[in-house]
Amino acid sequence: MKRVTDRPTVEGLPADWRKQAKSLRRYGGETPATAIERCADDLDATLRERDETTLSLVEAARESGYSRDHLGRLVRDGKIPNAGRPNAPRIARRHLPRKAPAQAPLAEEPRPRERSNAQIVQSIIQRGME
Question: Strand, coil or helix: what is 104?
């Protein structure tokens, strides 16, 4: 059984679909195999187009989680290629650094149940009698 974590990423779907098409074709499913391959081709083209899209520093900051100034510095320092012009930098989405998402704070450890001395003694007595 396939676990949720075994699912391919969006970028991995075209290869996964092509594998499925190959398997279908092996068993005579030419028409569905061709349809799946066309879907894989369409998704590949869409992903390439997405990665080639250039963003202004403001758009890049919104998407990456880094400030506009920081991204501008990275472009000026040559750490990210400038996909725009001098004094009007743009960043290709594929070169965009991504800040790791903030992790949710850990849930507070449950406290041991507070019991009165009488409850503790009663518990010990009951366990002793079992």
Answer: coil
